[in-house]
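<goal> How does this chain fold?
<sample>
Here is the protein in question

***
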Amino acid sequence: MDRLDNTIRPYAWGSTTAIPRLLGTEPTGEPQAEMWMGAHPGAPSRTARGTLAEVIDADPEKELGAASVAKFGPHLPFLLKLLGAGAPLSLQVHPDLDQAKEGYADEERRGVPADAPHRNYRDANHKPELVCALTEFDGLCGFRDPLRTAELLDGLGVDSLKPYVDLLHARPEDAALREVLTAILTADPEETAHTVTEVAAACDRLGGAYAPYADIAHHYPGDPGVLAAMLLNHVRLQPGEALFLGAGVPHAYLNGLSVEIMANSDNVLRCGLTPKHVDVPELLRIVRFEAGDPGVLRPEANPDGEEVYETPTDEFRLSRYVLPAGGTTHDLTLTTPQILLCTAGSVRAGEHELSPGTSAFVPAGEKAEVAGTGTLFRATVVA
């Protein structure tokens, strides 16, 4: 078992206090957005044996297990993160596996540089993800029913929103959502900026259901993504609750601290709330124009005390153990690779004492006994 030394990414939207508070360290005044745990080439975790990527590359079958290598290849198929949002992240969607393969091959064929700011597909993989709240956590997830959105927009009393309200009353539902999002993202930028300014003032004045969108507009004045965000469900997760984000589902995280796990991919199509490239035609090809409930997940406990967040993806499986004082030792040994992350209390994992924010990599088949008082998240694969 390897204790992990992990990189914290200082993205501008990061909270200056959330991750330091969990780690018990002094804030630096700089944003601390994400702590990465895994073997992603952008910031692989470090171990006493080298980076986790180097350790796995040296003997994939020993570290990952034969079943994982056979199913996913000689790489760790997931990335685990602590995510501390102090401001809204970009509004975005992820492609499915076929779309990712097709998009990556197309950009490779056209010679789009790998680091080009207008590149959409950094790899040929999909990026399903699961976010689990450690504090109250606000986000946007999936399209709200168009008629409810029409009512919300109409309540703002902004004349320039009337064409969108009329479109949202159209049928079928998927066509209405497509037409409105297309209209928002292709409208004249100056006119859109003026509309967003009016919307922000109205949201500030009205509060309530409009408050999250007022905050978004404060961070991204004049951005068409503010209007796109108003098409989506606002969700407030309580600690322990989670959201699964599948392919084509528009979403954004707004604020709070969470554990996030995803397939090892960088493929993101942005809808707004960002100065980065927005490829409207490709975005519209990827988005699933389906309204519905965002589907808040709560863990399901099995007999040995493991609480599992069930998802339809095999690249990752996230669960947690809430260990009471005086509890028994749990044997977590698996034939697949694991990352164990403590988020509360003190948990002994093998020879390592894990405090909040610390983690360990457990190679496939390695003995993994844990005990203590606290909360331990376990990330592995379904192989």
